[in-house]
């Protein structure tokens, strides 16, 4: 039984840190969430994803604090968080990659110069409703051009405390009048296999299948969304090319009631 009406309350961006810190860390904000086109083999966000501890606070303490602080705004979050650790060594490695990018493509680009004081945790939160997550990934539009909005929530936390907190698109979901029966996980995996049965020359690994709500805009004037139940399938695609192996990531979203690819 799914609640299917969601009113957009608004979004919340808190900028506490100095402008220099926020500008430098801006290189991460578009890469925190898996997307259709992200490349896990080359994306520099991979550099900061391994667990580590910073001197000023443990990762677990930082996650707990950010989650409790964010929930004080009355938002439900899932237990699952994605955390990144930005040690100075990792930040310098990324800065060197950006310097190479500058020399090859953007001579006018200024690669950031990080300091020890700018080490930080990046904590990514996932909104939900009664245990079902709201799809957070930055897909912009689905394959059928269904307009929807993502719910990206993240915080930068340094020795100075919260540098930036972004809680985007907060929803107030209300129970609908027409409960719907959804397709099973087995049904969705069968449809997925049928859909890509003709794929040739690739190695495909499904890494995640999860039930979500997808907030689809239904009334621009009132800001009302339909909280559509969907199955989200995320897979890694490996291809052999003349230049070597390439890895890409594919996200497929299915209407959980009809099985339609969105």
Descriptive notes:
- By secondary structure, the protein is an alpha+beta fold.
- The chain is built from four helices and ten strands, in the order βααβαβββββαβββ.
- The strands form two sheets. Strands 1, 2, 3, 6, 7, 8, 9 and 10 form an eight-stranded antiparallel sheet that branches.
- A hairpin with a 2-residue loop joins strand 4 and strand 5.
- The chain starts with a strand and ends in a 7-residue tail after the last strand.
Structural class: alpha+beta
- Work out the helicity level: 10-25%
> How many β-strand stretches?
10
The average pLDDT value, as a whole number, equals 76
Main beta sheet, described? 8 strands, antiparallel
Q: Which outline best applies?
A: globular
Radius of gyration: 20 Å
Distance between the termini: 21 Å
Number of helices: 4
Q: What are the segments in which pLDDT stays under 50 over at least 5 consecutive residues?
A: 1-10, 35-42, 138-143
Q: What fraction strand?
A: 35-45%
Instruction: Tell me the series of helices and strands, N- to C-terminal.
Output: EHHEHEEEEEHEEE
Assembly annotation: single chain
Features:
single chain; 262 residues; eight-stranded antiparallel sheet; two-stranded antiparallel sheet; 4 helices; 10 strands
Summed up, what is this model?
With 262 residues, the chain is α+β, with helices and mostly antiparallel strands. 18% of the residues lie in helices and 36% in strands.
Task: Spell out the blueprint of helices and strands.
Elements: E1 5-15, H1 19-25, H2 59-71, E2 82-86, H3 88-104, E3 120-125, E4 128-129, E5 132-133, E6 153-158, E7 161-174, H4 185-195, E8 202-219, E9 224-241, E10 244-255
Antiparallel strand pairs: 1-7, 1-9, 2-3, 3-6, 4-5, 6-7, 8-9, 9-10
């Amino acid at each position: 039984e799914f609640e299917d009406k969601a009113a957009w309350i608004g979004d919340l961006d808190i900028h506490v840190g100095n402008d220099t810190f926020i500008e430098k860390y801006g290189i991460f904000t578009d890469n925190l969430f898996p997307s259709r086109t992200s490349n896990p083999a080359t994306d520099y966000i991979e550099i900061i994803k391994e667990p580590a501890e910073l001197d000023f606070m443990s990762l677990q303490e930082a996650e707990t604090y950010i989650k409790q602080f964010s929930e004080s705004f009355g938002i439900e979050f899932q237990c699952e968080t994605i955390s990144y650790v930005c040690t100075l060594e990792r930040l310098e490695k990324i800065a060197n990659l950006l310097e190479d990018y500058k020399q090859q493509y953007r001579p006018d680009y200024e690669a950031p110069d990080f300091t020890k004081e700018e080490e930080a945790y990046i904590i990514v939160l996932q909104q939900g409703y009664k245990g079902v997550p709201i799809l957070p990934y930055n897909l912009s539009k689905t394959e059928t051009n269904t307009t929807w909005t993502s719910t990206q929530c993240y915080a930068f936390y340094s020795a100075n405390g919260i540098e930036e907190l972004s809680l985007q698109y907060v929803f107030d979901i209300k129970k609908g009048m027409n409960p719907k029966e959804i397709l099973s996980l087995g049904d969705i995996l069968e449809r997925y296999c049928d859909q890509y049965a003709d794929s040739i020359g690739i190695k495909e690994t499904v890494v995640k299948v999860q039930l979500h709500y997808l907030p689809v805009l239904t009334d621009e004037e009132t800001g009302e969304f339909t909280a559509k139940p969907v199955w989200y399938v995320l897979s890694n695609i490996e291809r052999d090319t003349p230049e070597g192996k390439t890895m890409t990531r594919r996200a497929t979203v299915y209407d959980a009631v009809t099985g339609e690819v969105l």
